[in-house]
């Protein structure tokens, strides 16, 4: 015990002896005790939770993978409103890429694919990168040596010999960039490597056929969320016909005959049902299927060609719709005189028209298309009266396609198809009268990025566009042959991102 005189002689201890100070000390001790009790309670609660077993959620069936849409231009992947995807500088959009790079569907509908994709949130990145590689293995048999009529492989004379040929090769490789410099503007550049369908000379391994080209490049103005009107300018597909195929790999005869690619400017209207498009096309011989005389030459130096197209879609039920349309092209590819040569000069323009339709009914798709020139093709008549082939008159050019595709319920992503198409450039009885193609197809979609496919193709007739009616042989004969028949089996894979 401390003596009282010591407490009184020390100022500090004297304050401690003050009654008010003792009250304060007591309050601090009580608060400290409460805090210690709360800490101990929290420790006991944490220990109890750690010792408790972790609950296991009841098993649920995994959601089935969404089947690939039959119309590649319709699908917009659902995005949860509670989890918006942040805008990135460079990104990917597999749904959009599959639609924009597919060569059998949406052929001349790329601008609308892009406008719908921007509206539906599939192109939120500043730059969207798309790519695809198509690798195939095939077997060809012809009853005529060196004459193979299958149009997905040309020029056949330099690459396919005798009666049988086989290959494993790259059919095509694509790399595309879609960029958004402004909410109302979209830029697009697509690079293509296609040695099998290149117009370069030589064999499949020649450097002239193994070039990478800028296949399409244009600027697109439009915003479907604001207005139904849009415009585009550059190197793009001309709005003429449907040009689509239900086959997984092979394009139709109508596409080979009439699908134009050219420099020009496009103006369009689209409200979800009605589609109207017009395009001013640079004259001369363009990249594909458009040729308009320019002062008697094929030099593309005047804006004197054009195309117009209109279609309307009726929604019959939630899963059934029907679309019908018609097109007109002022200068088609079929205007060269004899002897016919690719991209040759024309003396007169030969216009063409097209009518088409498409029915989507649940898992079934049906398509039909007919295209025809309004005038005769001068080069389909041999002008030399001493040549027996001069007996055949000049002819208009026609092509048509009918096809069906079905998605069975048995396997998700499976598609089976059958398509018949025909190219008719010459008079009945002429060696260049017609070439038709029957294609039976089977495809299996694996998610959004890869597809396996196989086709059986039968082709009757051998009618190459270059020197179709002759003029390349000293005796005046033609290499066109109505009795030539080809049979093709092709399997392959499309892989993209």
Unreliably modeled segments: 1-19, 52-69, 73-85
Q: Quote the distance from N terminus to C terminus.
A: 88 Å
Strand content: 35-45%
Shape: elongated
Record field, number of beta strands = 19
Q: What does the radius of gyration come to?
A: 35 Å
H/E element string? HHHEHHEHEEEEHEEEEEEEEEEEEE
Summarize model confidence as the mean pLDDT.
Answer: 88
Strand order of the largest sheet: 2-3-4-5-6-7-8-11-12-13-14-15-16-17-18-19
Largest beta sheet, briefly? Answer: 16 strands, antiparallel, barrel
The helical percent reads 10-25%
Structural class: mainly beta
The count of helical stretches stands at 7
Question: Describe it for me?
Answer:
This protein is mainly beta and 497 residues long. Helices cover 15% and strands 39% of the residues. Strand 13 and strand 14 form a beta hairpin. The termini are far apart. The N terminus is likely disordered.
